[in-house]
Description:
five-stranded mixed sheet
Amino acid sequence: MDYPSRILAKAVDEISGLPGIGKKSALRLALHLLKQPATQAIALGDSLKKLVTDIRYCRECHNFSDAELCEICADPKRSDEQLCVVEDVRDVIAIENTGKYRGKYLVLGGKISPMEGIGPSKLNISSIEKKLEDGRVKELIFALSATMEGDTTAYFIYKKFKALSVTFSSIARGISVGDELEYADEISLGRSIQYRLPYNEKD
């Protein structure tokens, strides 16, 4: 596709590099920005720059954060006794949107997947151990995707820490088998976290 401006062509190339956006959609977005007040595009550019330069990972749960501790970990009203283990930051957002959970989280950063070369050492499993050792966590909740990789990850963590005095549970299967957590509707996900089930080796 030929463009009348190299600057426009560069913008289209950059925008089309985002997931799910092709060249035509990128061109529409670029032209839309050109029609808006310059301050709008500048504000967008500034927010994107801060997104990659200023955002941090919470030292406690590995959630995205603006400070050393994320707002959830820093909230004294959140319970230390419940620790919800999720794969991704998007899962934290999904569960928080249900309004049904008042404990804390641990973001693994993925799930065990030998086919993709992801083993336990590449996940934040060691952070779970640190939290369980201090004795504050009474219940470890698995909120992982209903896939073979999600189940494998939950089983690995369960086997590693089952000797400790902690209760294991998993979200109820209101989530269809094979579904990723972030795509579940809020009502189903809320019920799944609210009516979670005891976790054991037969799950």
